[in-house]
């Protein structure tokens, strides 16, 4: 940029100064320290994802997708200004593995971070069997109900008895 100043009382006098202003178009750096760590299993919802920011970053896009699918073109959450994001309850299927990635952004460009995986805890496979209850009951009467609680995936049964 050049600036020229002329005085009203001296039309011949001229002073010219050059001022250089440097701008930066540095790309944002990749995020690091992503949590939960890659490959972790049995996570529960809500699940808090977090990361260490890369330099030159102003916002983030978060991608989360089923590990069997390709990364979607649209982020799960965009323009995040924090370094954490909580996946809400009931937002993902149980007993499923997911991939996730954080994209660092600034007004000039964006940089994709690494892809990591986590899996959501499977629901219990409990089975109630051998229910024993009286054929009838009246109001105010104490009754005993018995049953066996076991796992559908094994033969082991855990007897439980409730009183009401």
Can you walk me through this structure?
By secondary structure, this protein is an all-beta fold. It contains no helices and 14 strands. The strands form 4 sheets. Strands 4, 6, 7, 9, 10 and 11 form a 6-stranded mixed beta sheet that branches. Strands 3-5-8 form a 3-stranded antiparallel beta sheet, with no helix packed on it. It has a 3-stranded antiparallel beta sheet with strand order 12-13-14, with no helix packed on it. It is elongated. The termini are far apart. The relative contact order is 0.18.
What characteristic shape results from the CA principal axes?
A: elongated
Helix percentage: under 10%
Quantity of strands, as a count = 14
User: How does the major sheet shape up?
Assistant: 6 strands, mixed
DSSP helical segment count:
0
What's the rounded overall pLDDT mean? 84
Task: Break the fold down into its secondary structure elements and pairings.
Layout: E1 2-7, E2 10-18, E3 32-35, E4 40-43, E5 47-52, E6 59-66, E7 77-80, E8 84-87, E9 97-105, E10 110-112, E11 116-120, E12 126-132, E13 144-151, E14 157-163
Parallel strand pairs: 4-11
Antiparallel strand pairs: 1-2, 3-5, 5-8, 6-7, 6-9, 9-10, 9-11, 12-13, 13-14
